[in-house]
Amino acid sequence: MNGPLAGIRILEVGVMLAGPYATMLLADLGAEVIKIEPPGGEISRQVGDSYFASLNRNKTSICLDLTSEAGKARLGELVAESHALLVNMKPSVIRRLGLTYESLSRFNEKIVCVAMTGFGLDGGDDPAFDYVIQAATGVAAMTGDPDGPPTLPGYSSADNSTGMAAALGLLAQIVSGRGGQVEVCLRDVMLSQLNYRAAAYLNDGIHPRRHPNGAHSYYVPAQLFETADGYLALFITHDGFWKSFVGESGIGRDGQIPFATMAERAASRDEVLAVVEEVLSTDTAAGWEKRLRALGIPTAAVRSLPEALEATPEVTVTAGDFRLIGSPIRVAGYEPQYRPPPAVQSS
After folding, report:
1. Which of these is catalytic: 122, 159, 204, 239?
2. What are the protein's UniProt keywords (predicted)?
3. Would residue 159 show up in a list of annotated catalytic residues for this protein?
């Protein structure tokens, strides 16, 4: 079965992570993605073969000097035969290279041009690397223990999230049947993902604050807990989960359920956490995971990335000589054929 995006041609002028990730997701779903690279290849090739492969499988490549007349002419020919072009660069570079709908619509009125930037096409050229955006949008400030420094996650959450948003915007405009300019910027995507945190401040004046062990601001208990061996993520969001946890852990006495409602647990956060910490210290993280999952309670032992990959071998795919994580989007009747990333090609 052909992929759901078979017949769609997408041009990518992408660098490093956000843009290439967006188009790789689309390529995995059957779109034809042509990666336009500068002479010598895109800069992320210098990071390492596995890095490049993790973001550029299932694509073809062509090297064009987009500052030359020949390169611009060839780009125009490709645009005339494509559905979309996606680029992630500084706004001034996007405009200078003519990678906007305004510049390219003369070749194809229905071309969809997606510009991925840090702060929008009119937002200037300030550097917008992933960690900088996390710092600027409040993500780092609300992450970590209360008495510790601001903390960044161990992966590029802003770049990856913006890549997914850009892929969505690209497809939405293609479906509309109209060409046009689409903008997606890292700042706006990260602020959008702070949805309920931002709404709490905008509507109720509630400033986000950190809780120990990554605890949730509303639900209790919902955080990491130290056990007899390892850490456990426990996420009790409603009274049914709490009732099951109390029954399994033996916290309740004489059939009584302490802190029975969500409101009681939130109002007595410290007391609840002390009780839960004590009981969880009696077994290992793996032991609690097995016991509580059998009851449908959301929980997981904290694993390293190697441990997580070993536990889920079905997510690993082979693309040429590379072992990679496959597409997270499963379409009934369609199985992606994973091809290795393209070698540097001449025009």
Report:
1. 159
2. Transferase
3. yes
